[in-house]
Amino acid sequence: MNQQLLLRDESESIFSLPDREAADSWDALLWRSWESFTQGEPPPALRETILHSWQRSQQYAIDPDRFIYTAPPASKLTAILENNAELILVARSIMENLLAYNPDGHINLTDAQGVTLHFCGADLTPIGSILREEVLGTNCTARCLIEQRLVYVLSGENWKFDLRKRRRQCAAASVRNENGQLIGVLTLTATPDNFNVHTLGTVQAAAEAVGQQLMLRRLLAEQQSILETLNEGVIVCDKQGRINTLNRYARQIFSGLNPGNIPIDELLQPQGGSLLTMPFCNDIELQFRPAGLAPLSCLISLMPAPDGGRVLSLRENQRIRAITRRVMGVNASYTFDMIRGRSSRLQQAIHKARVSSRTDSTVLLSGESGTGKELFAQAIHNASPRQQEAFIALNCGALPRDLVQSELFGYADGAFTGSRRGGSAGKFELADGGTLFLDEIGEMPLEAQTSLLRVLQESEVLRIGAAQPVKVNVRIIVATHCNLLDAVEKNAFRRDLYYRLNVISLEIPPLRDRREDIPELVNIFIQALCTRLKRIPPVVAPDAMTCLQAWDWPGNVRELENVIERVVNLSEGLEITRADLPESLQQVSASDAPGGIQPSLQNLERMHILQVVSEQQGNLRQSAQLLGISRTALYNKLNAWKIDYRAFRKNDA
């Protein structure tokens, strides 16, 4: 009795596959089925799926006697192979392992369109061969493409006679991606004595292995992409300290280092212990001193790796400070073009400040309160090569004495009771690469002056409670309203620090020494304030301007701006007169003003035009007739003065 192996296709009844001794009789049976099919009679022994495939092949008018493989054009085939390079790479080793169990067999891989991508074993299917049913008729690969499941085809079930003559059995399984979509077919062709029920399971397992490997590769590639795009350095080492992974950010931080087989502690030289024995932590500041590189201070987190090693994530303190500065908005906004005034003393100060901006030397700004010392400091910074970096300002007189040093130099973790966990960077570190403006430097305590002198001499900052200093690159600008030399004589200010600060001395003139700039400043303040208040800017009458120029302005420009803001807010008309000014200003004598100020012709014209437009309630045609000018000329004047004539119209309500 012939032994038979039973195979089952999904949705099909049990079908008997003959062993080698019964192969000839089965071939004869399938041949009779073919003759019946060609004569239009029901085949005596043919699976339903094969019958449907034969019927489609007949409809395609495929000649079963003529056998030749067809392939896409060479350029298109090259593109197909390139697009499936990863699939071919993954499948190659799996196909070779599968071939070991079928040494005289043939294994081929096609894409989702039935184009052969790769083969191994017997040279039966050239690369590029199209195995789709509408091209080659019934075959195992074509059947898998259509039914998208594990299938097999006996030699006598093929449409082409040449495939039948090979007397080979085929099994094919679909290769799927992570979304379950068919992306290829893996087909095994074997002799009858090497083809059994286990062959189908082996092919199915191989196809699934290809899909799993593809998914794993893409998952690893995705994780690698995420690792590379992180804005923090990641270093993974094994339990011996050998580095396994180093992402892009870490490579940038430690540029020039070649990890090789050097242990991580030897490579990075962390201060304060070994990374392999350090307790796991989050956001702890640590300094590294890699060989051949400058010392580097980083915020690190240390976590366990699955193999007993360590995962180290780190961010440069310099980068953290840059982000902090961006969040704080610590940038200079003033430039030399924004310093208004044409007096000779002011222009001399501006010229000297422009020259000083070209260097990194320390600048000492002196002048009374309100003269604009910080404005000059910002302008110097914005005209310097450091303009893209931070501008940090600190008023030394506004801080309690015991906080000056921590604000300036920062403190380490646990430096004192109530200190922030992890420590805190001081203003020097935040200003690294940029400019630090120390206002009211004369109010700085003596103990802080000693630390400041060290920073100026060594270009490094030692945080309170820290063991190692941090290198900084900061340009210093200081300002004071008092006479520092007098403070030195009274032992209230260190003499050596004074000489270190007084490299470039720049005196800002008080407002009373440049009274000719007052009209321009007044108009600028009025225009800016009225723009915010959305109201028509009033005109300053000659008598009021005379009073403004005669006042001594002990508070300088700041006091002038405050007075103008008060007057504009309280005035209701289109003209600011002497009576609108504060009483103290009304009492000054016109003789105190320089040069007997004459009324401005432009102001007189402006006052007259606004008076007429106001009386005509914003009617430009009538106003122009009364003024004796064209309506266009009137409109242009109002537009130049940034006055909306519609504001003169009264509401109907």
Percent range for β-strand residues? 15-25%
What is the count of β-strands? 21
Q: Structural class, from helix and strand content?
A: alpha/beta
Radius of gyration: 44 Å
Q: What's the shape?
A: elongated
Uncertain stretches of 5 or more adjacent residues: 1-16
- Main pleated sheet: 5 strands, antiparallel
Tell me the number of helical segments per DSSP (H or I, 4 or more residues long): 25
What is the terminal-to-terminal distance?
A: 114 Å
Strand order of the largest sheet: 4-3-7-6-5
Helix share, percent: 40-55%
Average pLDDT? 84
Structure characterization notes:
- By secondary structure, this protein is an alpha/beta fold.
- It is 40% helix and 16% strand.
- The protein has 25 helices and 21 strands.
- The chain has a 5-stranded antiparallel β-sheet, sandwiched between helices.
- Strand 8 and strand 9 form a beta hairpin.
- The model is unreliable at 1-16 (pLDDT under 50).
Topology:
Elements: E1 4-7, E2 15-18, H1 23-38, H2 48-59, H3 74-83, H4 85-99, E3 106-111, E4 116-121, H5 133-136, H6 140-147, E5 151-153, H7 161-165, E6 169-176, E7 182-190, H8 197-229, E8 233-237, E9 243-246, H9 248-253, H10 264-268, E10 281-288, E11 296-304, E12 310-316, H11 317-328, H12 344-356, E13 363-366, H13 373-382, E14 391-395, H14 404-409, H15 427-430, E15 435-439, H16 446-458, E16 460-461, E17 470-471, E18 475-480, H17 484-489, H18 495-501, E19 504-507, H19 518-533, E20 539-540, H20 542-550, H21 556-570, E21 575-576, H22 583-586, H23 601-615, H24 620-627, H25 631-640
